[in-house]
Write a structure and sequence with these properties.
It is built from four helices and no strands. By secondary structure, the chain is mainly alpha-helical.
Amino acid sequence: MQKYEKLKDAIGQSSVLTDDEKTQSVKHIEEWITEDRAFGLIYDELVEVSEAFKEIFKELGLV
């Protein structure tokens, strides 16, 4: 759960994501937490929302 919270915080603080991308991304994360999806799937699907997630994950040390 700590990875998810860290990621949600980073999304909220991002200056490269639009408000819509932030909202969509957090919504997906909350759904994935509920569904207990694998972390790798989260990465792949968020990168589809925005390439900026590659850098966000890297900066957080999650990849």
